[in-house]
Amino acid sequence: MASELPPIEPRRLHAMHHRPSHAEAARFRLGTLLWFAAITLLLVPMATLLDIPIAKWFAEKPLPNWVGLTLEGLLYYAHGTGITLILIALLIFAPSKRWHIPRLAVLAAGGGAVSTLTKMFVLRPRPNSLLLSSATNDHAWIWSFDWTLSHIVDFEPSSRAFPSAYLATAAALTVGLCTLYPKARWVFATLCFGTLMQRLYCGSHFLSDLFGSAAIGLGWTYVCYHPSLMGSLFEKIESDDATEKRSRMIHSSTASDFVPQASTNAGGLEVKKLREESTASSQSPPSTTPENQQPESPARRVA
Known about the structure:
This protein has 303 residues and is mainly alpha-helical. 65% of the residues lie in helices and 1% in strands.
């Protein structure tokens, strides 16, 4: 009689069925993410006090040329071309992460879009459009708001300083990538910081603009991860993939546990059957077919 198949350990089953996805693991960080967004937003008026001195320092180009070229290259991290290459690399070299690509794409595109929409309401000149040699701290407080969008006709994103779409995109993308690859978080943080430095180096933004941009990027990330907002949509996409992976894992684990035992039982039954056939053939009487009968001798026929 074949032995019963061994059951899977309860802890192993629990780990298979209840292994959290990346979105579930990042949910507890949502509160911290919102706090960081609020803090960076509150730093905007404080950083305004340093806007003119920092802008003057970068306007003098005190850094070597190779530093400027490096910062220009790092800007591709928040550029459409660089983001596209990152997503393609994930699809090719990390196919198990392919269901996280939609969230990363929305993080990057949404951060830039929200920043561009904000620029429509904030009329603030860029540092490179001011005569910084004669500028004072009063010039840093040139904040004008167009709530009625009366200047929408001549709206040009490249002429307005607040906020930076590049940095908002980099901040949102950095959080998404750090959630997927926490061990490489310092690499992504360095790329994000390089984007911030490049915007200061080229004179496109004040320091306060960049703090506000980071707040927008973090706020948009909160929207994309919160389950009551857009997070539920992405969690459904990613949970379907996680469920498929767990089912394949359970199936492969079950097969590896049960197939050797089943094959052993089948082999034992086959050997037992061969032995029974051999024993039955040895105990059966000799065959009396006509071919095995010996002809009678002539003497026996005469008698």
